[in-house]
Amino acid sequence: MFEPVTIKDIAKALGLSTSTVSRALRDTHEISAATKKIVLEYAKEIGYQPNPIALSLKERRSKSIGVVVSEVANSYFSQAINGIESIAYDRGYHVIISQTHESFEREVSNVQHLASRSVDGLLVSLSSQTTDISHLTHLHDRGLPIVFFDRVADEIDTHKVIANNQQGAFDATEHLIKSGFKRIAHLTSSSHLSISIERLAGYEAALKAHNIKPNPAYVKFCPHGGMLYEETETAIKELLALPEKPDAIFVAGDRLSTGCLSVFKNLNVAVPKDMAIAGFSNSDVLDLFNPSITSIRQPAFEIGQLATQMLLQLIEAKYPVVEFEKKILETDLFIRN
């Protein structure tokens, strides 16, 4: 079993008291330079590391933050996590990442585990199944700093960082309309997620701006956000079975975009000859498709960075913070021919 070296072990080896060793390691002025030198050299030689749990009990800070996302393999989240880590590590914080795989139960369990590990704060992007956020409200009310990014909960008054989902969806849908498509379907995640609501609004606004009447039969919700192949396949088969089937689809998520392409391939639907597609995706995989796919890219890395800066501001604030802001970052329409 792994037994870390303790201050007691150093004291015993050097014939000093534990308090002397402790002060020497903390570099306090009460200890002579000669003693400090002996202690520090010996500590380095045997690979002594301060116990983070003992330190956190003393300082009431663990210098770690918890991150809750649906899936690390999702290119949006992997880029956001890179942004989170780039700020956290510079500021001396460790990052503990957990995945919900779009499951509400797993989100609750992950959040509770992170809180019990005494993280100093949480960065949360809700699972597609989450409608009840009492597990987060409870921690927030008890004073745990929480910042939401991407998929946010309006009920909790704290900092939030999102992309301009409505404008991004408007741009993607308008791109399809300007490319000559008139029957545009919309494939999205679960209906209650903030990103789904905002992207659906952008899609409908673009149709209205070009005098196209929105058709409710053209909107398909995938409650698992593309994590289940069958769910995406069912939605697309239903669209293809419509008497007046769509000629294009605006897809509202990273996972859904790649899932949609797999379904098309298996059903022998040629893109864009049989069906055009534009989606929200930060995946470079789209560049490999021929013909490639126009997508809305979100500033995922910057969203991660900004959310982390805001969380650390809450963690390190001397007084309770009562003014919160929702930051909205612009998206880019990445047109591939």
Protein architecture, described:
The mean pLDDT is 88. The chain is elongated. It contains twelve helices and twelve strands. The chain is of the alpha/beta class. 42% of the residues are buried.
Summarize the structure.
The protein is α/β, with parallel strands linked by helices.
Structural class: alpha/beta
SS elements, strand count = 12
Helix amount, in percent? 40-55%
Radius of gyration from the alpha-carbon trace, in angstroms: 25 Å
Percent of residues in β-strands: 15-25%
Largest sheet, spatial ordering of strands: 2-1-3-4-5-11
Give me the strand/helix succession: HHHHEHEHEHEEHEHEHEHEEHEE
| Spans of at least 5 consecutive residues with low confidence | none
What general form does the structure show? elongated
Q: Describe the largest sheet.
A: 6 strands, parallel
End-to-end separation in angstroms reads 58 Å
Mean pLDDT: 88
- Can you count the helices? 12
